[in-house]
Design brief:
single chain; elongated; 7 helices; 153 residues
């Protein structure tokens, strides 16, 4: 277990561009050592495996690991008491997250955008009644994935 934690620390300490650069460097070294037909096998095999896994998950043949932490069903928001006014308040974040293997490219996910824009426009039209505090980057841009955690591979 400690080894997995150590790998996660190393993985999270570098940006995506650093990992891509490292992968390109390793692939360049493989191309200088091995014949081109053999050197192209690792990325082709890895891409094929990832594509096959996503297709099997999308088709329902494999369990979807993206849904492991998803809460299905109804939920309630715990009310907190405002220290200044003593009123009960709840905070809602308007957004969408996709647990589909294709992420924001999942079938039907783009249909959510008009509903979100409508809710944001309604909240902005009457900020006093809706309690809208301030605009966010997601209220001004098209669908932005709200899930910033790393997805399982």
């Amino acid at each position: 277990m400690a080894a997995a934690a150590d790998l996660a620390i190393i993985r999270n300490n570098f940006s995506l561009s650093t990992w891509l650069l490292l992968g390109a460097l390793i692939q360049s070294l493989i191309f200088t050592i091995l014949p081109p037909r053999v050197a192209v096998l690792p990325p082709v095999c890895l891409s094929t495996l990832i594509l096959a896994k996503n297709l099997l998950i999308t088709g329902g043949y494999l369990k979807n690991p993206y849904l492991a932490a998803a809460y299905r069903g109804k939920a309630t928001v715990p009310l907190q008491e405002d220290e200044d006014s003593g009123n009960k308040i709840a905070v809602f974040l308007l957004g969408a997250s996709s647990n589909h293997p294709l992420g924001v490219f999942a079938p039907g996910f783009s249909d959510i955008q008009p509903y979100l824009q409508s809710m944001w426009a309604e909240a902005e039209a009457d900020p006093t009644n809706s309690g809208r505090e301030s605009p966010t980057s997601t209220s001004l841009s098209p669908l932005v994935p709200m899930n910033h955690e790393r997805r399982p591979t």
